[in-house]
Write a structure and sequence with these properties.
Elements: H1 2-13, E1 18-22, H2 30-47, E2 50-54, H3 58-62
Parallel strand pairs: 1-2
């Protein structure tokens, strides 16, 4: 979980226009997963970033604006 949080922080620090996240909450407990999803959403809103998230978790998918 800690390595995953560090990887997400590193990816977001550069403020890229597109962030690709493959199962960003996969190995995290539910509270930390919720926190990470909130951070991703806040970053997308604040910095006008596009988040492309791959997930098998319907809970995560339900928080996305668009599902493909």
């Amino acid at each position: 979980g800690q390595q995953q949080r560090v990887a997400i922080a590193r990816a977001l620090a550069a403020k890229p226009s597109i962030v690709y996240a493959d199962e960003p909450t996969g190995s995290l407990d539910s509270k930390t997963g919720e926190d990470i999803l909130q951070v991703l959403q806040n970053m997308a809103d604040e910095f006008k970033q596009t988040m492309v998230i791959v997930t098998h978790d319907p809970r995560v998918a339900s928080k996305c604006r668009r599902i493909i």
